[in-house]
Design a protein that fits this description.
Number of helices: 24
Largest sheet: 8 strands, parallel
CATH class of the largest domain: Alpha Beta
Shape: globular
CATH architecture of the largest domain: Alpha-Beta Barrel
CATH topology of the largest domain: TIM Barrel
Radius of gyration: 33 Å
Number of domains: 4
Length: 845
């Protein structure tokens, strides 16, 4: 007896269906869907095109779209067939023509075992069929697709016809012809029509086709029609005549003849045989009652249960206790808080806005930064040039308003001097708004810049101005700053950018040298550097840039780079973007390691390194920016890079959501990258900075999830965090497309972190212990807004209420230390950041 059980999840039935089969065989057929076969028990013979494969337990094989295939069962077997919707899968993977090489029978890859595990995880979720299992089903499905993409999918530029030995030109012609037949086999195709479309004679096409495929044109065409017809004959209830006509046969008689020639049975008889098998199966189910007793279904359930029990047996027993990590206070190292030296405050004209200035004063008062980085100082809207007369005169009233405000609030300017425009980005290659600056000649830039510096010296004094930083932007390399709206155009721009080399640098060096020469002449001690290299998109140019810069007479005082965790496969630049975020949780420290090595290689070993922009994304329309994840991401990377790679400054991008306020940002939150919302509510990212501010200047210890620091007078600080990186499904969706309610469903797991730290070497006595928790329940504007129903008509009193409640949880206790040690324990939620401060009140001595 043969059996088949098909079950689907309502959430992704358009993407994949799963069939459980035992003792099942079928004739050669074909279909648009991609088919994955996985053997649970016994043996299965699978024939694909002219090749036969013998599969045993745990083997898998993938049948590509429109490939001729069949399978023949041995006795007592069990296997699963996944059918993936071709168009849905093509859209998800961002590739028009899909071709997989996925066959455990012919290849042995390190990824095969992970692939088997995910298949069985998906089957387990399917078998549960719970109402609440849809999210888990979707996650496992995307995880399976992600493995297919990364390990088994051939890229577009690798696609070819492997079955035929012919020259490149003939291969391309044959490919075009076969693709045309595959797309139009339902139509009344003739040899004459195909020959005419490809501008060749009928005799030549006939001879060429037979030589290359081993079949006549008619045999090949009928084979395709027959393969698709068999699929419908078995899997649909359509009338046989309709099946024949829908698949290109001129009439039922022609279909019967071709079918009988190939399979020695008529279509009606074959369908009857398959129908009788199904009736036996149905009768069997009725006899045993309605208790999930279908043989294939039951066998799979038993297999998965046994597999799960086996996994449990191999896991270490959980006792419920948490192992305490011991930290002994020994040698202490001083460190510099590099992360709050620099803050990006945005486009110059925006900073004249009173709301912006109010928020800058808020940040400066509670967190305290040393430098404020901005650009667009000589933008058209700053009205610095008067060209109405015969000569250009300058009006620095607006620039002075900006600089006066910063100096008054103890913020030193970090000025990006180039013509860097203001960009509001939704995602990579998708710009919402762009505000450019008019072009000037080098002479015009030089005259303007000298006049600006002279009046700054006169207004603020050279002692003040020489503490400022001046950065020269390199416009040729910053591909973010384009008005491209199309993903393909963006990637083409990236590709073209790889081809620009030495000439591009020479032009920049010329501008930079002129800029630095005049700055050093007027303000010898001022720091002048560049070039704002986007490591994510242009890191491969760093060696060449530094090598050439080292040869220049005038060299930079510092190197400035941008760090956004984006990775582009250069070989696949034509593939439309889904999500280019790096799947490496250690991206930031790895990239900084590479930069420091490149500096050493070029002879710039001691050069000051400033990360002038960094964030999880360039997007100002991504709700992750408003979530607790952002706080744990920032905390992890800041602590991880502490005392590493000699980073002088690391400037967070960007301070306020006002920067990205536009016509589409009418709601309370719009996914802006700011530390505060446009209405002044502090985000988790803001609170992360306030907690990090409490760290002392002496490093006691640092671990995977924590840091311990010290101040004078037996005052200690501990920050711990439960960072979660993205799971597979996150990378299969365009950035920013996840709904506001889905922001916490895209991570590797939702497990809490049980942390226990014993700090030894303390002075015995009474300590005051203060604890602050930043998590989804305390300090998260996104979660509090969700409790409001995420309404878009927030009233002033409601906004004020959120300002009051969106703060970390706080408690204070007193603790007596008797054995020279204290144990700090905490169960941290996913994405939680927690601070402990314990200060000695009086000792026992």
């Amino acid at each position: 007896m043969s059996g088949t059980q098909i079950f689907q999840s309502s959430i992704d039935s358009n993407l994949v269906t799963v069939s459980v089969m035992n003792h099942k065989s079928n004739l050669e057929h074909a279909h648009r869907e991609i088919e994955l076969i996985y053997v649970i028990k016994g043996q299965l013979q699978v024939k694909i095109n002219q090749n036969t494969f013998h599969l045993i337990k745990s083997d898998f094989i993938l049948v590509n779209s429109n490939e001729f295939h069949s399978f023949q069962s041995e006795k007592d077997n069990l296997f699963v067939v996944f059918h993936f919707n071709y168009l849905e899968l093509s859209s998800l993977l961002g590739q028009k023509n899909l071709l997989f090489l996925c066959n455990s029978n012919e290849q042995s890859l390190s990824s095969d075992q992970d692939f088997r595990q995910v298949i069985e995880e998906l089957l387990s979720v399917y078998m549960q069929q719970r109402n609440d299992s849809e999210v888990e089903t979707l996650e496992k499905t995307f995880k399976l697709i992600s493995l297919l993409k990364f390990h088994y999918l051939k890229s577009s530029n690798q696609l070819e016809i492997p079955s035929y030995s012919t020259s490149k030109g003939q291969n391309e012609r044959l490919s075009e012809i076969m693709e045309y037949i595959q797309s139009n086999y339902r139509e009344p195709l003739t040899l004459e029509e195909v020959a005419g479309l490809h501008f060749i004679s009928v005799p030549y096409l006939s001879k060429f086709f037979k030589k290359q495929t081993g079949k006549t044109f008619s045999q090949y065409l009928n084979g395709i029609r027959l393969a698709h017809a068999v699929n419908e004959l078995v899997n649909t209830n359509k009338p046989i005549t309709r099946i024949a006509l829908d698949n290109g046969f001129p009439n039922l008689a022609a279909f019967n003849r071709v079918f009988n020639e190939n399979y020695q049975v008529k279509p009606v008889e074959y369908r009857k045989q398959m129908s009788e098998t199904t009736e036996k199966e149905d009768n069997f189910t009725e006899e045993v009652g309605n208790q999930d007793s279908d043989e294939a279904f039951t066998e799979l359930r038993q297999y998965l249960k046994g597999s799960e029990e086996q996994k449990v047996q191999t896991l270490p027993k959980v006792t419920g206790t948490v192992e305490t990590e011991t930290i002994k206070i020994g040698k202490l190292d001083a460190f510099t808080k590099y992360w709050n030296k620099l803050l990006n405050i945005g486009y110059a004209k925006d900073i004249l806005n009173s709301d912006m200035q109010e928020q800058i004063m808020l940040l400066q008062g509670e967190i305290g930064f040393t430098y404020a980085r901005f650009w667009g100082l000589f933008g058209d809207d700053m009205l610095v040039e008067d060209r109405s007369g015969g000569t250009i005169t300058y009006n620095f009233s607006n620039t002075n308003k900006l600089l006066d405000f910063l100096v008054k609030n103890k913020l030193k300017p970090f000025i990006e001097m180039g013509p860097k425009p203001k960009i509001i980005q939704k995602a990579i290659g998708e710009t919402i708004a762009i505000q450019t600056i008019s072009q000037r000649s080098l002479e015009e830039w030089t005259n303007l810049f000298r006049a600006f510096l002279l009046q700054c010296i006169q207004r603020y004094g050279i002692d003040e101005v020489e503490t400022w930083y001046f950065e020269m932007w390199k416009p040729h390399t910053d591909v973010f700053n384009t008005s491209l709206q199309d993903e393909k155009d963006f990637l083409d721009q990236v590709k073209n950018n790889q081809d620009v080399g030495l000439s591009q640098f020479k032009e920049y060096f010329k501008i930079f040298s002129e800029f630095k020469k005049h700055t050093n002449e007027l303000i010898p001690l001022a720091k002048v550097g560049g070039c704002g290299l986007s490591i994510d998109l242009e890191g491969d140019k760093l060696d060449l840039l530094l090598e050439q810069w080292k040869k220049e007479e005038i060299q930079p005082d510092f190197l400035s780079i941008y760090l956004y965790p984006i990775e582009i496969n250069r070989d696949k630049y034509r593939v439309p973007i889904k999500n280019l975020h790096s799947n490496n949780p250690n991206y930031v420290i790895n990239k900084l390691n590479e930069v420091r090595k490149a500096l050493k290689k070029a002879g710039f070993d001691g050069l000051e390194l400033n990360v002038t922009e960094w964030n999880i994304s360039i997007s100002n329309r991504n709700f992750l920016n408003d979530s607790c994840f952002k706080a744990s991401y920032m905390t992890k990377n800041i602590i991880e890079n502490l005392n590493q790679n000699q980073v002088n400054m690391m400037g967070y991008w960007l301070f306020s959501d006002i920067f990205s306020d536009f016509w589409d940002s009418k709601t309370l939150l719009h996914g802006g990258a700011g530390l505060v919302t446009k209405s002044g509510i502090k985000k988790p990212s803001y609170h992360a900075f306030t907690l990090l501010k409490q760290l002392g200047e002496i490093l006691v210890a640092k671990g995977e999830h924590y840091i311990v620091t010290k101040r004078s007078g037996n005052r200690f600080q501990v920050i711990c965090f439960n960072y979660k990186h993205f799971n597979y499904s996150y990378y299969l969706h365009p950035e920013g497309t996840m709904g506001i309610n889905e922001q916490y469903e895209i991570f590797e797991n939702n497990e809490t972190l049980n942390l226990s730290l014993e700090i030894q070497g303390l002075v015995n006595g009474k300590y005051r212990v203060k604890e602050l928790k930043l998590n989804r329940d305390h300090g998260s504007v996104l979660d509090e807004w969700l409790k409001f129903g995420a309404v878009d008509d927030m009233k002033p009193d409601e906004v004020e209420y959120l300002k009051q409640i969106c703060v970390p949880y706080m408690k204070v206790e007193h603790h007596v230390v008797e054995g020279n040690s204290i144990v700090l324990k905490g169960e941290l939620q996913p994405h939680e950041v927690r601070l402990f401060e314990f200060n000695l009140l009086f000792s026992d001595i």
